[in-house]
Design brief:
Layout: E1 41-45, H1 49-63, E2 71-75, H2 86-91, E3 99-102, E4 109-112, H3 114-125, H4 133-163, H5 169-189, H6 203-216, H7 224-227, H8 234-244, H9 247-254
Parallel strand pairs: 1-2
Antiparallel strand pairs: 1-3, 3-4
Helix pairs in contact: 1-3, 1-6, 1-9, 4-5, 4-6, 5-8, 6-8
Domain GST N-terminal: 42-129
Organism: Vagococcus bubulae
Pfam families: GST_C_2, GST_N
Length: 261
């Protein structure tokens, strides 16, 4: 194998005219109107770990009988580059799912980044985010922990373990070690509390379960649960299964996406 020689200035060597795929530039690539339904919330997303955070929370709100928590859900096919259409980019300039519009407000409120959407909905309806300073802070501590830690699991471990065209020992070892450290952390935290932020189910549980719970269940990357030896994390497994059994979580994972075409 030839060692990679760092150039003085990096040049992108994969320029193409495809509407999808990664590029070193931001912004819309084509004009595309998004459908708009009648529900208060318009959600443009996909059933990825980040995407299901939003549908799970909305289904949990509906489970509680919260009025106004209804939503229209549209599929943004990131493999086809839907996230680079003009209407989607106007909601989320970063071109990532999920994105949400609250059209019950005048003017409408555009919300992007899964963590921001969870906080927005939790605060709007006064659910799944404690109001006391200690409970709220602990919940936000863990929510932001997931936002900061998740890329090591998805873009790091998941990419090199599952998606990369060739298996390379160094990055797999590096990101497996970090992923297992995170799993061990969660397992230790859950040794003396029922939920991530304490004794109350919160948006921190929703955010973390969508990544780490599904990883433990073997739902993210084929063979990864065995590779990571998740059976060693008994507290994390118990928490994972308890949340997986919630009716709203099941609905949030199986909800139907409407086409944007």
């Amino acid at each position: 194998m030839t060692d990679y020689q760092l150039p003085n200035v990096w040049q992108w060597e994969d320029e193409n005219s495809n509407r999808g795929g990664n590029r070193p530039t931001a912004g819309s690539r084509f004009e595309k109107k998004l459908p708009v339904g009648n529900a208060p919330f318009q959600v443009y997303s996909l059933g990825t770990p980040n995407g299901v955070k939003v549908t799970i929370l909305l289904e949990e709100l509906k489970e509680l009988g919260v009025k106004g928590a209804y939503y229209d859900l549209y599929k943004i096919d990131i493999g086809e580059g839907d996230q680079f259409g003009s209407d989607f980019v106007s909601i989320n300039p970063n071109s990532k799912i999920p994105a949400m519009v609250d059209q019950s407000q005048t003017p409408q409120v555009d919300v992007f980044e899964s963590g921001s959407i969870l906080v927005y909905l939790a605060e709007k309806f006064g659910k799944f985010l404690p109001t006391d300073i200690h409970g709220k802070t602990e919940t936000l501590n863990w929510l932001f922990w997931q936002v900061g830690s998740g890329p090591f699991v998805g873009g790091g471990f998941g990419h090199f373990f599952h998606y990369a065209p060739e298996k390379l020992k160094y990055p797999i070892d590096r990101y497996t070690m970090e992923t297992k450290r995170q799993l061990d952390l969660l397992d230790k935290v859950l040794a003396d509390r029922n939920y991530i932020a304490g004794e109350e189910y919160t948006i921190a549980d929703i955010a973390i379960w969508s990544w780490y719970g599904q990883l433990v269940l073997g739902n993210l990357y084929k063979g990864s649960a065995e590779f990571l030896d998740v059976s060693n994390y008994s507290n994390l497994i118990e928490w994972t299964n308890r949340i997986a059994d919630r009716p709203a979580v099941k609905r949030g994972l199986s909800v139907k996406y409407q086409s944007i075409d």
